[in-house]
Design a protein that fits this description.
By secondary structure, this protein is an alpha/beta fold. It is built from six helices and five strands; from the N terminus they run βαβαβαβαβαα. It binds 4'-phosphopantetheine. The site of 4'-phosphopantetheine (PNS) has 9 residues, from β1 and α4.
Length: about 170
Amino acid sequence: MTDRTTRLAVYPGSFDPLTNGHIDIIERGVKLFDRIVMAILVNVEKAPLFTAEERVATAREVFRGQHNVEVETFQGLLVDYARHRRAHVIVRGLRAVSDFEYELQMALMNRRLSSEIETVFMMPAEPFTYVSSRLVKEVFSLGGSVDGLVPAVVEAQLRAKRLSGAGDAPP
Ligand code: PNS
């Protein structure tokens, strides 16, 4: 739990997998907020490539030693999770105009659900403006390089999934 003087922000997402774009947003976020909680959605309806446990372990490894970044999972409504953490800010990355409509809908729905929680949008560095978890998985599964787009630990895990046959590898 956080006292009300600590500026805590929740950075929610699927993070399947974590990309360098996500990391860039968190690094920017910790300059604005005292703490960021990376909140990984456990979505029972979606079939993620990485389990929630794998995604948590990866993110904790990436942010190991960074005491102002926490990694947790959440289920249900994001605003309920934010309230439970006593966070008043939701951080979302905004890459291109194409993100805008979905993000606007979510931000306004979340505001309707909980008017005391504000969504703050942050732009990633230019090299990450086209990077998404979905494209990373697609490119990797088709044999393309994702070097520089994801942390080394994620690249290794993608490779391991491919070897285990879980990553849709080409023949
Ligand atoms: O990385 P993603 O998949 O774009 O993240 C989407 C996420 C997890 C932020 C969104 O799906 C979410 O908040 N889900 C929790 C359920 C919820 O609160 N739905 C209403 C939000 S408008």
